[in-house]
Amino acid sequence: MSQRIQFAQTGGSEVLELVNTTQAEPGPEEVRIANKAVGLNFIDIYFRTGLYPAPALPSGLGTEGAGVVDAVGENVTHLNVGDRVAYAQGPLGAYAEHHVLPAAKVVKLPDFIDFETAAASMLKGLTVQYLLRQTYALKGGETILFHAAAGGVGSIACQWAKALGVKLIGTVSSQEKADLAMQNGAWATINYTQEDVVERVRELTNGEMCDVVYDSVGKDTWEVSLNCLKPRALMVSFGNASGPVDGVNIGILNQKGSLFVTRPSLNGYADTRERLEMMCEDFFGMIESGKIKVDVANRYPLADAGKAQDALQNRKTTGSTVLLP
Ligand SMILES: NC(=O)c1ccc[n+]([C@@H]2O[C@H](COP(=O)([O-])OP(=O)(O)OC[C@H]3O[C@@H](n4cnc5c(N)ncnc54)[C@H](OP(=O)(O)O)[C@@H]3O)[C@@H](O)[C@H]2O)c1
């Protein structure tokens, strides 16, 4: 038997239940991983609430984890039983002692990355990799606005931007979060509960505004974010923490200065094994060089996944959270 968190209906964190299941065997091109640590992400909340539909109910939850391969299906060539590995993409079901998934989505972990660090950073670090290195290939010298700068993704983004020589202005909701973002390399922070974000960006940039805005808050910040951009600059809308952006009149991009907008996802960038490995090499290299330190700030037993999600959803966390099976 093996324990996993599942939900039979969408809703609040009370729909999550810990159940005993028979251990699934990996099919062709699949592996089974005995998880040592599991990553908590905002996307897990979107699936639990139904904002993103799960393929079927009852459903497992979670797409990020690290552990040891304990069974290998047919036609798997790059992994063996006993390998230390990590993953950051579906299918849902990482909140579990064991998880079966396509081998193509699983990478070997280098010795210098422990299981908790990997589970806390695979999805978030690869997201920052594509945001800062691919969606807009930052070269150094640019000014960017990054919302939720003290969160899991934000903490890695602050460090990566600093390493690239990019001025990252981070939005946060408290002084404690502002301090953390600055320690991580933000160039400046804006506490949006006390300051006007657009006016503060104007002051900080001497009226020039930003080359790119990275917005994972969604509905509440869409228009503020557009107002923080230079003419012809790029708006990257990559999350919905406050609800999805909808009902947009595309003419607003013209009114605000011939802006560009994109709505990317990790699956759209790490869509082949080669691309996943290239992105991991870049991210793991940043950890090895010491330029990025992953803040495993919160740990919960697997059984307390609901409590962990409530803390994330209610803006109580900084850095990353892991669940321990
Ligand atoms: N598209 C992709 O590929 C991709 C991949 C990974 C993550 N994401 C997105 O990136 C975001 C960050 O993910 P994460 O897991 O690292 O979470 P996180 O940043 O640790 O937590 C979310 C943070 O968002 C801020 N926030 C602002 N408005 C909020 C609201 N109405 N409700 C809740 N939080 C709000 C809070 O920070 P303050 O208190 O400082 O405001 C909160 O701490 C999420 O939106 C997620 O969906 C997207």
TrEMBL record:
Catalytic reactions of this protein: 2 a quinone + NADPH + H(+) = 2 a 1,4-benzosemiquinone + NADP(+)
Class of enzymatic activity (EC top level): oxidoreductase
GO cellular component terms listed in the entry, alphabetical order: cytosol
Keyword Oxidoreductase: yes
Location of the Enoyl reductase (ER) domain: 11-323
EC number, UniProt record: 1.6.5.5
Protein name: NADPH:quinone reductase
Organism: Vreelandella nanhaiensis
